[in-house]
Amino acid sequence: MSIPIKKRSQKAGLPPGTPIHIGERKSEKTRITLFDYNEQQAEEKELIKAKECVLFKDNSTVTWINVIGLHQVEVLEELNGCFGLHPLVLEDILNTDQRPKMEDYGDYLYIVLKAFFLGNGRGMKSRANRSA
Prior knowledge:
The chain is of the alpha+beta class. It is built from 2 helices and 6 strands.
């Protein structure tokens, strides 16, 4: 009888804040959807490049950025270039096994939560959802 060997984490030995994707790869291509709103208007926009988010950085509106497909680390690093997220936030975003939590970084809120979606008529399923 063989004993299963646990694989060593890809992060082992790396400094804190190193951007490494941890978890299942659930989509082929990364999709970025931006929601920008205030009391008078709301806009939903599918972005081609993460750099497009910089146009909304200094607006007085609320901006929610939804990223599906976190396995492309370079896309998240590009977003980080626009917003200057804390390195540990970027590391947390890429860890899809993260527990739900909320952290206030002064200029932005970092929220991790599980979202529910309806899949193939089989009822509700949970999916990790990240936003910064």
